[in-house]
Amino acid sequence: MSLALPLARPLLRWWRSALSGSSTPARGMASSGSSAINQSSGPPAINELYHARRLRLVRLAVLMVDDLGTAEDIVQDVFAALYRRHGAHLHTVEDPDAYLTSGVMNAARSALRRRRTARAYVPPPAGTVPAAEDQMLLSEGDHEVLTALGRLTVRQRQVVVLRYWSELSEQEIADVLNVSRGTVKSTAHRALTLLRGLLGERR
C-alpha cells in the first residue's frame, strides 16, 4: 500500500469529527484540495478542471482503494473518459464536479471488486508486511482508520467517505451513487455503527 500523497487532514481527526457530528456537509462537490474555477464565461475547459480538481479526486480515490498508484490511474481514466465523451469544452456537461466524483466512485468500486476477487484465488504471501516507507507516511491512528474503512462494504465506504470526508449532502451522495436519499441515510448509519465498534470513540 503506497500513500505518499499527503491527505488534506489527519484521518483520526476526521473520525473524531464524524463521531461528534461537527463535520457538517457544506462545501459540496468542490471541497478540500480544489482550486477555484471561474465559470463566469461558461463551463470550464477540461484542462482547467483537471488542474483544479485532480488533487481532491486523487485523495478521494485513495480513501476508497488504499493505494496511490491505483487512485491516480482511476482519476486519469475518469478524465480521459470525460474528454472522449464531451471533448475539451464541457458545454454539454451539466455538473462536471458531480460527473467526476461519480466516475471516481464507480471506478473505485470496480477496482475493489477486482482486488477482492483476485485475493479470493491468490492468498497473500505469509508474513507480508507493509513497506517501511509506507508505514511512515501515516500515523498509527490513520492506519487504524484506513483498516477499519476496509472492513466496510463498498457502498458503506462510498457513503462514509463522501459524507464525512468530501462533506457532501445526503442528496448529493444519492445523485452521485444513483440511489435514494433514504438509502444514503441508512447506509451511513450502519457504517458509522460498524466503525464505532472497530475504532471505539478514539477521542
TrEMBL record:
| RNA polymerase sigma-70 region domain span | 49-116
Domain (RNA polymerase sigma factor 70 region 4 type) spans: 144-194
Name the family the entry cites: Belongs to the sigma-70 factor family. ECF subfamily.
Name of the protein: RNA polymerase subunit sigma-24
- Keywords of this entry: DNA-binding, Sigma factor, Transcription, Transcription regulation
Which PANTHER family does this one have?
A: ECF RNA POLYMERASE SIGMA FACTOR SIGM, RNA POLYMERASE ECF-TYPE SIGMA FACTO
Give an example GO molecular function.
Answer: sigma factor activity
What organism does the record attribute this protein to? Answer: Couchioplanes caeruleus subsp. caeruleus
| GO BP | DNA-templated transcription initiation
Q: Where is this region: Disordered?
A: 23-43
Q: Does the keyword Transcription apply?
A: yes
Q: Specify whether Transmembrane is a keyword of the entry.
A: no
What residue spans carry the Low complexity bias annotation? 30-42
Question: Which Pfam families does the record associate with it?
Answer: Sigma70_r2, Sigma70_r4_2
- Matching InterPro entries: RNA_pol_sigma-70-like, RNA_pol_sigma-70_dom, RNA_pol_sigma70_r2, RNA_pol_sigma70_r4_t2, RNA_pol_sigma_r2, RNA_pol_sigma_r3/r4-like, WH-like_DNA-bd_sf
Which SUPFAM superfamilies does the annotation name? Answer: Sigma2 domain of RNA polymerase sigma factors, Sigma3 and sigma4 domains of RNA polymerase sigma factors
